[in-house]
């Protein structure tokens, strides 16, 4: 049945019948995500480093949940899970070994606080925490140091990412930013 045909299957067509080379991916159409994609990494890079630009914006526009002395915390524009935080020094440095002792200490404290806040706000069961340094290591923005705090739930290993190779994010970034920022200790 083609997309334009009426019927009980509501216009669904098997991906295997599409033109092109078949792959193992299913598609979950999320057109609301275009707002993020259209202002995503390429647009941010066009105006320089996104982590240098974020602190120059308002907290909602920069997705910032907390501003510290040497470092700040913001939501990832392209999250792995809802609540995916990034901890960045204000200073434009590429790798952890270039950070000052003060930056290292504050990144650590902000990471701990971020974990506590995410546990409270999202009731997550665990975390993936890490830094990808250099493009070869998987850093999307390799010129500015940032640490990922990715909340995880016992039930998040469902069929979507495993079988369908798809992530479903249940909350919009603005809603998550408000919840995390409001729960952040003063």
- Unreliable runs, pLDDT <50, ≥5 residues? 1-8
In N-to-C order, the SSE pattern is: HHHHEEEHEEHH
Assign the structural class, choosing from mainly alpha, mainly beta, alpha/beta, alpha+beta, or little secondary structure: alpha+beta
The name CATH uses for the topology is HIT family, subunit A
N/C terminus separation: 57 Å
Question: How many strand segments?
Answer: 5
Describe the sheet with the most strands: 5 strands, antiparallel
Describe the structure.
- With about 190 residues, the chain is of the alpha+beta class.
- The model is unreliable at about 1-10 (pLDDT under 50).
- It is globular and about 55 Å long.
- The protein starts with about 35 loop residues before the first helix and ends with a helix.
- It has helices at about 35-40, 40-45, 50-55, 60, 100-120, 160-165, 175-185; strands spanning about 65, 70-75, 85-90, 125-130, 145-150.
- It has a single domain (about 50-185), classed as 2-Layer Sandwich (HIT family, subunit A), CATH 3.30.428.10.
What would you say about this model in short?
With about 190 residues, the protein is α+β, with helices and mostly antiparallel strands. It is built from seven helices and five strands, in the order ααααβββαββαα. It has helices at about 35-40, 40-45, 50-55, 60, 100-120, 160-165, 175-185; strands at about 65, 70-75, 85-90, 125-130, 145-150.
Topology, element by element:
Elements lengths: L33 H5 L2 H6 L3 H4 L5 H4 L1 E4 L3 E5 L9 E5 L11 H22 L3 E5 L16 E6 L6 H6 L8 H11 L3
Antiparallel strand pairs: 1-2, 2-3, 3-5, 4-5
